Amino acid sequence: MITARLTALARLTFGNRASQIYLGLVVAAAVLVAVDTLFVHHEDASFAGVWLFFLAAPTVFLFFAGGGLLGDAIAGSSAYLYIGLVLSVLIQSAALGAFVRLLRGGGRPAHPREA
């Protein structure tokens, strides 16, 4: 039962073209940020990381607000930032998959009732 739900969630998140394109854009932005951070010397701070937050908006801001409720020690940690960023991207990918399924009219498949 649980594996069927996880499989359905994985299909919503990764199994349609719109979610795959969105996740591809996120990966491309993450590679850009990594290359910019590791290999490019800047006089000032770089704004390359902002693109990740643009792609993760608006759900990433809910994690920021929730972090404020958890306290400064947790909300200020980089681990919380990365976890919130990854979770918000996955939530948005699943929501995009659900929206595509809704547009296609593909609700739950009909199951015959047993007598």
How many beta-strand runs? 0
**Mean pLDDT rating:** 86
The class by helix and strand makeup works out as mainly alpha
Q: Give start-end ranges of low-pLDDT stretches.
A: none
Could you give the order of the helices and strands? HHHHHH
List the helices and strands and how they pair.
Blueprint: H1 2-14, H2 17-39, H3 50-56, H4 59-70, H5 72-75, H6 78-104
Helix pairs in contact: 1-6, 2-3, 2-6, 3-6, 4-6
What are the defining features of this structure?
115 residues; globular; mainly alpha
Tell me what you see in this structure.
With 115 residues, the chain is mostly helical. It has one domain. It is 75% helix and 0% strand. The chain contains 6 helices and no strands. α3 (50-56) packs across α6 (78-104).
Short description:
This protein has 115 residues and is an all-alpha fold.
